[in-house]
Design a protein that fits this description.
Two copies of one chain form a homodimer.
Chain A (H helix, E strand, L loop, with lengths): L12 H8 L3 H8 L7 H14 L5 H8 L4 E6 L5 H16 L3 E6 L4 H13 L4 E4 L8 H8 L4 E4 L9 E5 L1 H14 L4 E7 L3 H18 L4 E7 L3 H13 L6 E4 L2 H14 L8 E5 L13 E4 L2 H16 L8 E4 L2 E3 L26
Parallel strand pairs in A: 1-2, 1-3, 3-4, 4-5, 5-11, 6-7, 6-8, 8-9, 9-10
Antiparallel strand pairs in A: 10-12
Helix pairs in contact in A: 1-2, 1-3, 5-12, 6-7, 8-9, 10-11
The structure holds a DNA duplex.
DNA sequence: GTGAAAGCGCTAACAT
DNA sequence: ATGTTAGCGCTTTCAC
């Protein structure tokens, strides 16, 4: 092995060039595998590269090319499994294409969302995967549109006005949830959500309500939606239970809502599913190992990420034309937290012969 | 409001300069608030900037300064609350100092860890916050050392050989856990961990064992550690239980281990805490809303992040000298999953008069 | 095949 | 106080 040469600063392309006795241009060509370089020179360059441990500065290189091989990702938060997995997946897909991923969290703030998209524009990112706080009409999307940035919007989206969008098929999933709950005898159900997740919340509520009322016109569906504060939703749910309401099932439209529901059940000493059933959007690893295990709507994260990247790169490579809206089907995992409600009584819960296996 | 001028490409500093009738250098000075510019020209520049919507390209600017205002972060994974919160926090702290954060996930792979640090070096990041897969002797840390990059190592660290380190005080926390379990009468305890988390696992096991044996010399402590595969740990735990072992308490050294334990309890129909108690490293939101609520060692994420950034920037700004190792104290949250084991019997569990409130 | 020259967008040293 | 010059590390014509 050739021993490395110590240098104060990192070796530049010129250091390689002079050591190999060629010009910087030739080095550049070798680095990019251009065929028209004399084999002899290729070897000399390769030797010099190895000796110096040379690696190109991708940012300087991008500067010259006027197009950066960077994809920006904006997510509302990173504390939940959903976005964590999403970002991990997007990173892999971007790297497969030779791009770097730069992720920013807007902490559920629309103002920060705008701030971040500006900075990404300053960075001249090649494209953006945006998971908006609210929906595709937020400030980030407008900014992207106005500055003709390439972008795809995922997760919390309604329509395909401006950009390609990819999201879970909330409506179909909600219809299936309604079918399951009504089928298990539930006639009084509570739906909880967050208004700031406008896009997905709406589709989820509408699909659920329509199907439930269609199957059981006599059923009662209450909806509790707080604007953006999880604390406010908790208050609302608490007040609702406090005034004596006792639905037989709760359907949460997002992950933290499921936690709020569980926490309020505990507070009142309600057992799940005996006293009340629960199902929520977003699966998490813990949900299958607790007592009861918690039923969940599983969003196809890999499919969403894959689709988003495919579409984004098509746009980056110049595809024009109408934006498309892709919906990915969800799985419904009915676990122990959903029980049977008999004769319209406020309790459910099947006997568990033996504890089911967790995996 | 001045109306924006449409331009094919983004306005550069020269566009601003010519519109304002000054040189690019003057524009640069105005942008950086240099005081020696004639007020008249300051105004002209500001007007041009506003009219064109000019914003500097931070990457081009960094190229020239030869120091990039970018902090790299490397984490083993992003699916858990711990690293998600950590990254969110680090992002905030970096931005407070005018830096951007670039996060990469190495998916628990040491090879990828090295890959990523190389890329970050290529990017000439100003500094790196590394949460290594194994410990501070992994390839990323060596690479950083070898190329004299500024860095701080967090979470899975043993000593302070090379870089400043910040982590939770695993040892003290484990001692406290031992005290609690032994105090509640447990005399046969199982500790589960992952060998690839070498650094933290070791400190956690040693502290626990020493304290437990000190308080109750007759107690039995079994340790199950799989190298790196969570599946292998699951197999080991399963085999251990299958051959008839029935500890009265399980102490998990990392978040996923807690899930494995719960899942294996379910599989055998063991109730927690009646049949077996459980406590694990890393708190998560769900742990306080399930039945039983799960006891946890809470790592002080904000403190770790804050400390790490402080130390990193000191190094970036040139501080020399011995690396220091900072330990941040953990909280122990004893929840329902830890019960009392009476008279050395294999079962525990206190009566729960009323279900405790969740928050 | 190769290298000189120009330039991506910006800043810093130095004249003026 | 300002502009000119030079150059960060790289790529890309375009002559030779």
């Amino acid at each position: 092995m050739t021993s490395r040469v110590a240098l104060a600063r990192r070796p530049s392309i010129h250091d390689v060039a002079s050591r190999a006795g060629v010009s910087a241009a030739t080095v550049s060509k070798v680095m990019h595998g251009v065929r028209t370089v004399k084999p002899e020179n290729v070897r000399r360059v390769q030797t010099a590269v190895a000796a110096l441990g040379y690696r190109a500065d991708p940012l300087a290189s991008d500067l010259r090319r006027a197009k950066r091989r960077i994809i920006g990702v904006i997510v509302p938060e990173l504390e939940s499994e959903f976005f964590g997995t999403m970002v991990t997946e997007l990173e892999r897909l971007a790297e497969d294409r030779g791009y770097s991923l730069v992720t920013a969290t807007c902490r559920e703030s629309v103002d920060r969302e705008e701030d971040i998209i500006r900075r990404m524009h300053d960075w001249r990112v090649a494209g953006v995967v945006l998971a908006p706080v609210r929906d595709e009409h937020g400030p980030a999307a407008s900014y992207m549109k106005q500055h003709s940035m390439s972008g795809v919007i995922i997760d919390r989206v309604l329509s395909d006005d401006i950009f390609d969008t990819v999201s879970a098929d909330s409506s179909t999933a909600s219809i299936e949830v309604a079918r399951q709950l009504v089928g298990k005898g539930h006639r009084h159900m509570l739906v909880i959500g967050l208004g700031s997740h406008a896009a997905t919340s709406k589709a989820r509520i509408d699909g659920f309500r329509a199907e439930a009322l269609d199957l059981a016109p006599d059923c009662r569906i209450d909806v509790l939606v707080a604007e953006s504060q999880i604390g406010a939703l908790r208050e609302a749910v608490r007040a609702y239970f406090d005034r004596g309401e006792h639905p037989t099932a709760v359907y949460s439209l997002f992950a933290k809502g499921t936690l709020v529901a569980l926490s309020e059940f505990r507070r009142r000493g309600w057992r799940c599913p005996e006293d009340v059933s629960l199902i929520g959007f977003d699966d998490a690893e813990w949900m299958q190992v607790t007592w009861p295990s918690i039923a969940a709507v599983v969003q196809p994260v890999e499919a969403i990420a894959g689709n988003a990247m495919d579409m984004l790169f098509e746009r980056i490579e110049g595809r024009e034309g109408q934006p498309t809206a892709r919906l990915q089907r969800c799985d419904i995992l009915l676990r122990e937290s959903v029980g049977v409600s008999r004769h319209g009584q406020p309790t459910g819960g099947e006997e568990q012969a033996t504890p089911p296996v967790a995996d």
